[in-house]
Structure formats: C-alpha cells, structure tokens
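In the design runs reported in the main text, the only information available to the sequence generator was the tokenized backbone. The following block is the verbatim input for one such run; it is reproduced so that readers can re-run the procedure and compare outputs position by position.
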C-alpha cells in the first residue's frame, strides 16, 4: 500500500512539472505577439488600425488690399492681393465669391469677397473694398479760348434730349433705329437706350441672356412678363426712370413690319428676388399679386437679392 502511494506521488509531480513548462512557453509567446503586432511604438496610445491622416489647419496671414478705380475702369482679382514676393499662394486656388464681383462698373463702394481653397478643399473667405469714382468729364476747348490763331478741332458729343422731342418724334426714331432685335424684339427707353430681348427656355439660358452684352431675358413670371438685365451693363437706367415715363418694345409683326408696343410706368419700387419669386418692398408677389403687364428689374447687390423694380401697363 505504501509503495503504491509513493509511485502515485512521483507521477503527479512529473505531470505537474510538464504542465508548468508548457504554460510558461505559451505565456511568453503571447506576450511577444502583443508587443510586436498590436502596439504602435511611435504612438503607444493609438494602434495602427485607428491611425488617421492629420490635416493641418488652413491659415493665410495677410489681408486683402482695397482698390480704387474710375467709372468704366478695369480691375483684376490679383489687384486685391498683397504686393509681395512670398509664395503664399502656392497650391491654393482663389476666386470671387460671386461672378458679378468681377464686373462692377458704376460709381459706388462694393464689398469684394475672395475665396481661397487649399488642396484639402478647406476654404477661407477674405474681404476687401472696391471704390469706383466718378469718371472725369471730357473737357471741350473752344477755339475762341485759344490765344493763338491756329484752328482746333471741336469735340462734339452727341446727346439726345428726349424732353426736347415730342413723343411722336421719339417713336419715329425708335422705329428708324437699326440695332438688332432679339428673338423677342428690342426694349427702348425714351432716351433711346435699348437692349435686345431673348426668351429663355431654362433658368440657365435666362442667366446666359442676362450675362451677355446687349442682351436681356424676357419671360413670363406668373401673370406678368419680366425683363431682367445687369445694372453694370447699363440697365441701371431703370433707377433713373419716373412714374409716367414711356418704355417701348420693338417687334416684327405677322406682316414683317416693325411695330412698337408702348408701356407706361405705373410704379417704381425696390424689392427682393428670393429665387422663386420677385417680391415688392411692401410684400406683393409679382407672379400672383400684380395686375400690370410688364416688369423691369435689375440687381442692387452682389447676391442678387435686393432689386429695383419698374411696373408698367401696356398703352396700345
């Protein structure tokens, strides 16, 4: 009986030793696997699987320059950038916030916004002021003012004073005028300022006709016909009109004859372009709340929301 117990004890010790040896080997193997495969030694708190690219903050440590020009003068987007030799715009795109900001012509002050965009598509907005000063008038020197006996050429500026002409004379001059008609005719004011009218089929086409020189969009807006054009292209003329003035649309009739549609200005007001509606300053929608036949409008702001409106009735 004692021999059996002693043999059992020896076998138990041997089995235990073998188990302990292999357990130690496995623990060491697991320890090194963790160390080699799962730990990022450069950043111990973050594994390779969770690592993301860190995009640096986008900064431009400069201010735009304000620009001053004369009426009808030209300016470029580069004129607003600081005059420096530093390569601060390497790999950066820049452009106007609104397309119209490159086309201001009339006297006044305008806020110019330029967007800068880096390679990671992050953007920064910077602002400057464009000042357009009144153009200096052309000085006409009379021959009698010269002290010498030499003759000089007189500078003759042709102007049309509509107040000195009868309405019949104005209409005759418009009919005789040979400027091209758009597909919807040509709009004339009593001063003989005019633009060709084009009827768009899409919003994109309407914008194209407005952006083109000597071209306005002419289209239905609910119950009323609309004429739209940019102020800087000359359509600011509507801001100088008064109630009672006449406006004309010259067209070709079914007999291939030039005819005039005559309109009288009933209201002059400011308003808002919401994108879907044109609304007067007192809250009337042109599409549904106006009983006039024609509306002319132009933008007063870079975002195109603030507008000047003329509302007209057809006379004939």
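Verbatim output:
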């Amino acid at each position: 009986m004692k021999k059996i117990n002693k043999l059992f004890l020896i076998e138990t010790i041997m089995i235990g030793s073998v188990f302990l040896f292999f357990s130690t080997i496995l623990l060491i193997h697991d320890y090194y696997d963790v160390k080699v495969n799962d730990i990022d030694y450069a950043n111990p708190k973050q594994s390779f699987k969770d690592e993301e690219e860190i995009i640096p903050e986008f900064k431009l440590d400069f201010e735009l320059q304000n620009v001053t020009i004369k009426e009808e003068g030209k300016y470029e987007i580069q004129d607003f950038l600081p005059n420096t030799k530093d390569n601060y715009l390497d790999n950066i795109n820049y452009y106007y916030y609104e397309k119209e900001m490159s086309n201001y012509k009339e006297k006044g002050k305008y806020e110019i916004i330029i967007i800068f965009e880096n390679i990671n598509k992050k953007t920064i907005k910077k602002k400057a002021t464009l000042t357009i000063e009144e153009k200096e008038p052309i000085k006409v020197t009379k021959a009698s003012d010269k002290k010498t006996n030499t003759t000089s050429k007189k500078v003759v500026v042709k102007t049309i004073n509509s107040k000195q002409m009868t309405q019949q004379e104005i209409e005759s001059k418009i009919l005789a005028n040979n400027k091209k008609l758009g597909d919807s005719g040509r709009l004339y004011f009593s001063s003989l300022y005019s633009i060709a009218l084009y009827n768009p089929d899409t919003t994109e086409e309407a914008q194209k006709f407005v952006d083109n020189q000597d071209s306005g969009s002419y289209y239905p807006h609910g119950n009323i016909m609309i004429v739209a054009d940019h102020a800087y292209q000359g359509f600011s003329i509507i801001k100088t009109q008064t109630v009672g003035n006449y406006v004309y649309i010259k067209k070709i009739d079914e007999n291939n004859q030039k005819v005039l549609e005559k309109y009288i200005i009933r209201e002059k007001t400011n308003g808002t372009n919401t994108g879907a509606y044109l609304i007067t300053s007192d809250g009337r929608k042109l599409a549904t709340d106006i009983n006039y036949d024609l509306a002319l409008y132009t933008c007063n702001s870079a975002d195109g929301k603030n507008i000047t409106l003329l509302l007209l009735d057809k006379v004939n």
